[in-house]
Automatic annotation (TrEMBL):
Name of the protein: Sulfotransferase
Domain Sulfotransferase span(s) in chain numbering: 47-295
First-tier enzyme category under EC: transferase
InterPro entries noted in UniProt: P-loop_NTPase (IPR027417), Sulfotransferase_dom (IPR000863)
Originating gene: LOC100493528
Subcellular compartments: Cytoplasm
GO molecular function: aryl sulfotransferase activity
Keyword hit for Transferase: yes
Length: 302
């Protein structure tokens, strides 16, 4: 990316105010709400591949895996641009001169890989009209909460998370950008019956990345050699992505990594270092109520 573009956005961001509003009861960034008609009216193509997640569930990791599968393991080509440019973020409206997700997607050749954090009920209908394949990555809520807390501290596009104590309640009540983790995973989980959705757990990716990469490969209709798959696994490991400027967000104008890194820990169970005993009890009670009958089994440790 042109360094002048980055500087321009950094300056504007410093003076901008983050606002949140609602679309159908879901809290979203004000800029997304302002542009809602163009986002909801987005024209998907039949060969698009959608990566859908609740924030911090492993989106960037899956983006790299999908990109490398499509490129049949060509690492050089995968470094053609930062992950947030090569995979347009559908509902994101960054400050000018950065293009919006929709604008970026419209200029791209097929097959496009697209990112969204939208809950299923807000997804532009053209995705299902065109029978687009979607990979949904789900991560347990406790680790998502911790990861999101740190990300809200470093992202200038998101509201400040406040104290951990306050954030715990805010997250649990679903008052964070993109709303309730519970509604998100349950909604996308149910949609598996009707649409081409591959549901992948972050915890499974940590446990056995090769197994999960193979699932994605098959879903995308590819057949790659063991050697290529090993290479993809290596280049999408936490360490490799942490060192790669194209994936570690060091080139992102709205993320200040002096407080915390984007590639922060990449583990299962970091919530134990943040949840108090009381918070854990409150969380588990709420979780039981909300997730009963969902058929989804999340692991909070391996
Ligand atoms: N390769 C790999 N292996 C393991 N973990 C990884 C990997 N890549 C990203 N991550 C971790 O994913 C978290 C960021 O999530 P997202 O990419 O979904 O963020 S975002 O919502 O798109 O901003 C964030 O989690 P935390 O470390 O727990 O904060 C990243 O470290």
């Amino acid at each position: 990316m042109d360094p002048r573009t980055i500087q321009e956005v950094v300056k504007k961001t410093e003076n901008s105010q983050v606002t949140m509003r609602h679309i159908e009861g879901v809290p979203l960034l004000g800029s997304t709400c302002d542009a809602w008609d163009s986002i909801y009216g987005f024209k998907a193509r039949g060969d698009d591949i959608l990566i859908a997640t609740f924030p911090k569930a492993g989106t960037t990791w899956m983006q790299e895996i999908v990109d490398l599968i499509l490129l049949e393991g060509d690492v050089e080509k995968s470094r053609r641009a930062p992950s947030f440019i090569k995979v347009p973020f559908l509902e994101l409206i960054p400050l000018k001169p950065m293009p919006s997700g929709v604008e970026l997607a419209q200029t791209m050749k097929s097959p496009r890989v697209l990112k969204t954090h939208l809950p299923i009920n807000l997804l532009p209908p053209s995705f299902w009209e065109k029978n687009v394949k979607a990979v949904y990555v789900a991560r347990n809520a406790k680790d998502c909460m911790v990861s999101y807390y740190y990300f809200q501290k470093i992202s200038k596009s998101l509201p400040d998370p406040g104290t951990w104590e306050n954030y715990f309640s805010t997250f649990l009540s679903g008052d964070v950008p993109w709303g309730s983790w519970f509604d998100h995973v349950i909604g996308w989980g149910k949609a598996m019956d009707k649409h081409q959705i591959l549901f992948i757990f972050y915890e499974d990716m940590i446990e056995d990345p090769m197994r999960e990469i193979r699932k994605v490969m098959k879903f995308l209709g590819k057949d790659l050699s063991e050697e290529v798959l090993e290479n993809i696994k290596y280049h999408t490991s936490f360490q490799a992505m942490k060192e790669n400027p194209m994936t570690n967000f060091s080139l992102h104008p709205n993320v200040d990594q002096t407080i915390s890194l984007f590639m922060r820990k990449g583990t299962v169970g970091d919530w134990r270092n943040h949840f108090s005993v009381a918070q854990n009890i409150i969380f588990d009670e709420e979780y039981k109520k909300k997730m009963e009958g969902s058929g989804l089994n999340f692991r909070t440790e391996l």
